[in-house]
Each structure stands twice: as structure tokens, then as C-alpha cells.
Amino acid sequence: MERRIISTSLGQAHVVVAGPEDAPPVVLLHQTPRSTDEYAEVIPLLSDALRVVAIDTPGYGASDHPPDPPSMGDYAAVVADVLRALSSGPAYICGHHTGAIIAVEFGAAYPELTRKVIASGLIWVDDDVRAELGPRFKQWTVQADGSHLMAHWERLSYWTSPDTALTQRLLLDVYRAGETSEFGHWACLEYDMEARLPLVGSPVLILTGRDDPFVTPPQIQRLTAALPDTEVSYIDGSVFLPNENPEGFAGAILSFM
To answer: What would you report as the CA-atom Rg of the chain, rounded to the nearest whole angstrom?
Structure first.
């Protein structure tokens, strides 16, 4: 794997590339508030056949922090900036949770750069979801007594126990994002999904972890009805699907391609 820093409309973006330069490109987009580390186990499984381009979304990982909360359109524009800088495209666009919504928006806004979209853990965003998830996306701040450290450990351990090594990786991403770590979530809540989904002309794979509590069968029904060309695939795993089941995740991508 090779690390690169690329100038974008939201500052300098940290990008990991791997695989043959002449292979079809696949872009990997992480959930909030993670980084390219979300795909650390997936990249080696894809890079024999594909040119992997994993991006730290602005504000996360080693990318610059935008001064104001970006929109989904802003995040998608960064992906376009990266692909053009690398002379890579059209590409397969793959994202998980927040990354899945960025991938959908990219497919709607940049059809000329999109081969197919792999949307893992894609959530249908409407007023009901905004009311349910909005209170979860309250921005944390550093506390003088350090209590925010243990609060994050306890919250993340709920999803990752007993894998404390993964919990630690998640914590590192949270604290690198810092006190603007919720920007990606806020962009999700503001996204006009119902208007944008029909504009995605490329085929879409809706990839879902069987134990992901945020993606329900009624949501998937609405997504498949709104997207012109979709397939649905279930694999074992939950909220942190690329880390939990990298073989299944990579296999689903390669099969869809």
C-alpha cells in the first residue's frame, strides 16, 4: 500500500492506493468517524484484481479538517478530485454507512466517473430517521476530568466487545477527528435522499450485515424501489462490517463486479 496526499476542494486528503495501476479502480469510503483503517483488512483482498483507492474523508484520519460542516455534495466532490488527480476513472464506488451515502451521491452527481456503486449499510434518510438518529449525533467535547475518554470506550465497546483491539482502533479515529467528529453524521441527516436516489443511473449493490440494527427490511424495500438498478446481498456482520467480515465484504464486491 502507498500513501498519498492529494489537494481537493476541502483541503489536503490522505489517500491509500494499492494494486496494479492498470486494473479497474475501486474507491473505498468509510463511515463516520472512522478512517481508511476501516478497510485495513479489505484492501489486501481486493488489490490483486483492482486498483484500490481508499480515502480519508475530510475531517477524518489524516485528511485536513474543514472549518465548516460539509454537505454530501461537498464530500462527493472530494472523491471526484481524488480520481481526477490519480487519472483513475470511471471507478467502482464503495462506501459503508456514511460512506455509502457519499457513494450514492457520487453516483448521482458524477455518472461519468461511476461504473457501479456498492452501498454497504445504506440507511434510508427521512424525517423519521432524522428524529431517531439526530439525538445520537450530538458533538462531544473534551472534558477537564477526561471523562469523555471512558464514555467513548464504553459506548464503542457495546458494539465491539470482546474485540478490544478493534475498540482501540475506533477510539483512535474518534480522537483524530476531534471535536468536529460529527460533521459526517450531520451531512447524512441533511441529505435529500429521496430526490437524489433516482438520479443514480449505474447498478447499485445494497450490501448489508445481517446483524446491523440500523438497516431494516422496510428500509431496503424503499431503497430498492427508489434506485433504478439494484441488487441486495446479506453477509455476516454488524455495524463495523468491513472489519468484522473482510472476506465476506471483499467477496461481495468482487462478485457484484
So the answer is: 17
Residues in the chain: 257
Q: What gap in Å lies between CA 28 and CA 94, rounded to an integer?
A: 5
Decide: 23 and 48 in contact? Cβ < 8 Å: no
Q: Determine how many CB atoms are found less than 10 A away from the CB of residue 63.
A: 25
pLDDT value for 161: 86
Residue 186, burial from CB neighbour count under 10 angstroms (0-12, 13-18, 19+): middle
Structure-block grid coordinates of residue 96: 459503508
- pTM score of the predicted model: 0.97
Query: Half-sphere exposure of 183 toward its Cβ, with a 13 Å CA cutoff?
Result: 21
pLDDT per residue as tens digits for the range 210-224: 999 999 999 999 999
Q: Is the pLDDT of residue 228 over 90?
A: no
Give the pLDDT score at 78.
Answer: 98
* Separation of alpha carbons 132 and 80, rounded Å: 31
